[in-house]
Design goal:
Strand content of chain A: 15-25%
Oligomer: homotetramer
CATH superfamily of the largest domain in chain A: Dihydrodipicolinate Reductase, domain 2
CATH architecture of the largest domain in chain A: 2-Layer Sandwich
Mean pLDDT of chain A: 96
Low-confidence stretches of chain A: none
CATH class of the largest domain in chain A: Alpha Beta
Shape of chain A: globular
Structural class of chain A: alpha/beta
Chain lengths: ~400, ~400, ~400, ~400
């Protein structure tokens, strides 16, 4: 009676003062399928090593001074001891080199978004993933929410009819003051084009909105009209963006994102209007999905009920607590890790991924995200109304 | 001890099958300041006369066969008996001739929006109003809500700081099917360019959104980028519109309106973001105003409380029931009539309007509304990103 | 082609500083079916007469110095000129004598609640109503809301199954400080047993909760266990009450009401649980009714939609504006006046009330309300758990 | 540079088909402070052993056949290898013997609620805890929510003034049909007095409501008037309960709980009314706390903001994601484990618990819970209005 074993994670980034690395560790810890066994947590080797040992109880020899060191050392360890995958939670500009090295060393990868710095890098990475055959997951965490999966299935099952209009938004307030000049770690790199890429707000959170819209509707953007602004004087990158959208099949829409909208926390929300019904979902109240059928009372679908599972097996699968016991951000994150683990197990066993496997964004979503940033930035500089989205 | 008297209303339009005329009569009846004494309710003289007598208990001699007849007859009646003002609740194309005739006959006017058919007519009417010196009120009813007046005062008192971003929306669902081809009276004229003007959805409800945004913020639009669509095949006018907005002083925004958005009823809503705070208001939940100050809990201001009146005397003045006893659409309407009555009393007495008088939109707002429709329609046809709003 | 005429109202109470009289006048004005033609607005004859003339534009001769004077004078006027009914909006202790005199003089009556001072008076009034055959309407205004009528019809149509549990509440905050000692007019008489009756909070608003529960469910209370408190020291009447309830057919419940609950405005709300489904309704958000069927998404029914009218003709009939254009307190009030007017027209014409007539509470509801107050007060003084509700 | 180590957990119960055991494992996994190293997951030894190995990747030798076996074997392992604490997630009747054995074997304990079967057992356990000096935590998980901790601190800081009224509720729907007769595992033992204790609904979830009310207000119950019902025919234990409450210092209240309320999921909610302000909190929307100060707009405090931490250090400490990234049930649970871990570390190091340690319910809360059940059941059988709560 020999059980399977846990999947072993090595982390790059996520040391003292980091935000998203901690979230990854907690999310990965929820389901008992993953154990953190190694990491390179900081650009400062000493600080990174100390962090791993003191804060995460790692053995000193696996709390590495750099990601290169980690990849070199881990690949020499025997199977069954070495890490199975690398989680990349660094600023954007480090994503590509770590991902490349990890994949080429034979490790699977979970990577934070936006995937890389530009479209060219994204396409290079796409080739590397395809060549190595390793699992590459991109952490667009919001599509991990069960009710988002239900929304996708409702669209797929034609319960909304033909999609006509899509409104998606992601307003925040945290950059309303120039905190990047006060040394706030999260703000500083995000507003530095070298470390963050060609867009600020649109790159950081606009991409989540774009990903959510395409994920739920299955419709691809065809052209964009963008209006980007840095409301806080002196910023080299946008802190706010408003876009008109054209999708395939005649659907139209609006995407707006902001980091200077007083009182907004993480107010990602989406409305999808079809000719039979519409849906509405709010990330800040994620356990509900509103379904509005023409001529009928609004229906409030709540996570954790049997009727949800009947429409969307993945919504049910990605649910850990009963209806009325709220799930949140960490559980959505954990669903991406669930998808990663299932892919790693299948890949390493040389088996096909089961039809019931949890889904998770991949390198192609990452390419699309970089194209979105690229198109929005081009449009923002253009006097023409529409800029085509690359096919 | 001689009391003042009620103000006498004559109505044009609003007979059998009409919607907004009935709303006007009910709203005008709430405060006991106005009595309906005459009307010409239908293009069909017999039907109109019957309606006035049977449904409204008017004497047969003042239930007129046409608006021309009404104006002719009423102006011959002695003061103290004849109507004081005309309420125009017909389809758009009739607004101009009735308003012109009424003003020139010495009557005040309450006119439904959009004011007239195009900018040229609007400017003609503006001159007539200025020349006759009569009161002309335009029924942008949504600015009649007390919490909208509070919002305006908050902006004016600089509680939001510099306005950076404005989102305003007005989605409905009622034209999701081609009911204009099934003889639905409201839909038929609204989708006929000859009776409705150059825009459909944008003219009917987009103008409300525009008016609300300018009313609350005091900022004027400077340029627009519009994307209009007739989602229901064969419609000569738009049933949906998405716009990017530029305002004075660097503020930017989004306006979207729709009449094909499943499940939406009259979901007019606005978010105004300043560098100190933001506000949020929803017409479907109109007794609340959300105030979100940077770094503080969200405040929910509710109509009818003393703290509202301290910030906004007009919000208090336009309030009829205590907090927690909801007011709605009719009361907002009635506030426009309150403003009209105060203007008529002051004008007829040759007095200055008291500083405490209720406000009400006027012919200049109407000109602006027509310019908005004109600019949006131009932009929708243009390949350039921005079309200037006329000064 | 002679039209019907408006119904003529005479008002008792509702002068300077009054609250509910003004609400009655506005509500009665909405539908254009009623005209206020006379009144006795104050215990001080001069103030009352002045009020009627200056504020309501009544002719001096019909702005009476006392209600007795009004009834005497009006009954001498010819039919077609004299008032048709008397609206009583005085403090409670004046309800009985005015109602008696009005009915016996041949006038119909609309009376504020609670109906009278005690059960004995209530039964006397019941006999007078029955004997005179006049219309007597009691203004439990909250049952005038369309969605309450829908709720009642859902229960009647067995959509909830057998009712098991009922929670009803009515918390307010306005008496949290001893404002009755600071001369606040509304508070002073309500907390004086001679003018208000045996209960404070329970009489003023607990009766609304009781009436709402019995109206919607059709179930009658059988026994009560009450805990009344005057939290503000020195009050002779309760300002807060908590009750356990037993209804017919084994249903159980809770009723709580309060006038010292900080932050509550008029938070009347009800939950009715059956073995098939439950409903939830909030007076402060009155255009929605939540229907929760076992094993299904929650349904949000909103006023003004066709699907509402299919289930509840009276909900549709009592609706004046389309879905998404909120209605409120005044419109609910106006529905009671609609029911009154229909009864008066039928009674005066000697006809049977049409099956489609709007409903309105009557003298029997008033008797029941007085029995409720009586039972609650008895229970509050008792050491036994249950006190029977009289049959 | 030697780091601390993770705390080692052994679990009793929580095998195939169990609900709460899985929740404990996930919650304990979030913060990376605890590792599950042993367990006895089922009354059937073979099934339990298989579960541990196959589902949890435990080594076969530490997936025990019974809890007795586990405690015996683990206590023989060297420190640094053996479990540090036992988590008890069995049906209620097993809590006492396991807790007793574990404590007496030198292990700390995390125990599900209700703590034991009756007051006598509770007091015995209290003595054992005191005698052994081991950490005993009781999993009243709802007090783990950050906004509940903020609520408690607001009361403590006198921001509400004197507490006058407390309403607490916990309605569910899951037992609306007799699923215990269809073999539903959760329902079967909960409705069996031998395994569950003297109360059904009141024991299972009424105790959460009681614990929440006393936790937030710091006021202790003094007497209760209870009305318990088994609405589903044939149940030996209540599935619904309504209670009037008296607290210390004159506060009064209502507690109601139900498992037959259609459409309710886990609608635990509380309203606490003081003479300066009130608070309102809903478990199903746990990231918000409403603060309502007399005469001011309602404030919506949201988890994850700096202003929360200024008022409540524990609310901040128990927060893992920023405002607007919702946390839920698992994170509240994890806060109880955080308190447990801090207590275990302090206890084992012979140090005083730091003042900044996370709080967690203990054996005294468990005694109180059993007294609550006992008092409610007594009251339900009594004809007297009030039954005293033991001191």
């Amino acid at each position: 009676m020999a059980g399977k074993r846990k999947i072993r994670m090595g982390m790059v980034g996520g040391g003292y003062g980091a935000f998203i690395g901690e979230v990854h560790r907690k999310a990965a810890g929820i389901d008992g399928e993953i154990e953190l066994v190694a990491g390179a947590f900081d650009v400062d080797p000493a600080k990174g090593k100390e962090f791993g040992v003191k804060e995460l109880y790692l053995p000193a020899e696996r709390s590495y001074g750099s990601w290169k060191e980690m990849i070199e050392a881990e690949k020499k360890l025997p199977e069954g001891e070495r890490i199975d995958f690398v989680t990349i939670v660094t600023p954007n500009f480090v994503h590509f080199p770590v991902a490349k090295a990890a994949l080429e060393a034979g490790f699977h990868v979970m990577c934070e978004k936006p995937m890389v710095l530009d479209v060219a890098e994204a396409k290079k990475l796409q080739k590397i993933v395809n060549k190595t055959g390793k699992v590459f997951a991109l952490n667009h965490n919001y599509t991990g929410y069960p009710m988002v999966k239900l929304a996708k299935d409702m669209v797929k099952n034609n319960e909304l009819g033909n999609i006509m209009k899509i409104i998606v938004q992601y307003p925040q307030a945290w950059l309303i003051r120039p905190i990047e000049r006060e040394g706030q770690q999260q703000a500083t790199w995000r507003l530095d084009p070298k470390r963050s890429g060609a867009a600020g707000c649109i790159g950081d959170i606009g991409t989540h909105a774009e990903n959510l819209a395409e994920y739920i509707t299955g419709l691809r953007l065809t052209e964009i009209c963008a209006d980007l602004t840095a409301f806080v004087k002196g910023r080299p990158l946008d802190d706010d963006g408003n876009c008109l959208l054209h999708f395939e099949k005649g659907a139209k829409g609006i995407l707006h994102a902001s980091q200077i909208s007083a009182g907004e926390e993480n107010n990602l929300a989406i409305w999808v209007y079809g000719d039979k019904a519409s849906i509405e979902w709010h990330q800040e109240d994620p356990n509900k999905l509103f379904l509005k059928k023409v001529g009928n009372p609004v229906e409030v679908w709540t996570r954790g009920n049997e009727y949800v599972g009947k429409k969307s097996p993945l919504a049910a699968k990605g649910t850990r607590t009963p209806g009325g016991h709220p799930e949140g951000f960490l559980e959505a994150f954990a669903n991406n890790y669930m998808g990663l683990v299932e892919r790693i197990r299948a890949c390493d066993a040389g088996k096909k991924l089961p039809a019931t496997a949890m889904d998770v964004p991949d390198v192609n979503d990452g390419v699309r995200g970089m194209q979105f940033i690229d198109t929005v930035v081009k449009s923002a500089k253009s006097k023409a109304k529409w800029v085509k989205f690359p096919k």
